[in-house]
Amino acid sequence: MTVLQVENLGKQFQMHHLGQSLHAFDSINFTLAQGEFLLLRGPNGVGKSTLLRTLYRSYLPQEGHIWYHTTEGRIDLARAADVDIALLRRREIGFVTQFLIARPRVAAEDIVAEPLRLAGIPAAEATAQARLWLAEFGVKRDLWRAYPTTFSGGEQQKVNLARALILPQRLLLLDEPTASLDAGARAALVRRLADLKAQGVAMIGVFHHPGDVAHLIDRDIELTAKEVTEDVAV
Ligand SMILES: Nc1ncnc2c1ncn2[C@@H]1O[C@H](COP(=O)(O)OP(=O)(O)OP(=O)(O)O)[C@@H](O)[C@H]1O
Ligand SMILES: [Mg+2]
What we know:
The protein is an alpha/beta fold. It contains six helices and ten strands.
């Protein structure tokens, strides 16, 4: 079943103070089915993060469509109302960045358990599962009740991943999730992504070390400065 169908997607940034626009990407076309994994490639500044943020609708595109398919029909994320986007983000579309948005005086295990609690899972069980994921990603037990605002960059990233991946979603967008992770956490992340893929989660990701996920990739898209080509890999 198709999850996402991107048609002729294009984005520029208007740089008002310079009186000019900056080309981010154009003519992006691809279709992603349940359980498929798409790798985005290209040099620094070519628009990979911008494309992921546009798919997540943090940015509005100027051209094209982002058809997200559900059992009730399809919705164009490029034009959907903010309220519909908010609902989809809560239930179906996840985004993993390199950065944890740590909140003051919220314990690591509560940050990780929150998506489960919002999904209606009782607090005690949500916390128990959160601890399993913190352990899996290699966060020391002493830190589970501590506040991540003071954690190291790598520790924050582990909390971030545990939270983002605890609840399987239909579509997962990943922006360099392995940056700043040690080997153990990288291996745990790859195991989790393989498991999510097997459960039917569709994924689009940018990876600093694409070799980590080579066995998961179904397709890749190379972004280039002016034009975009899509090719089928593996
Ligand atoms: N909000 C913004 N306003 C203006 N320009 C932006 C904005 N966000 C990104 N850009 C520009 O768009 C271009 C693409 O940036 P983007 O972050 O998508 O690149 P990237 O491919 O993810 O690079 P990297 O590999 O370094 O992460 C860059 O030239 C950047 O300066
Ligand atoms: Mg980027």
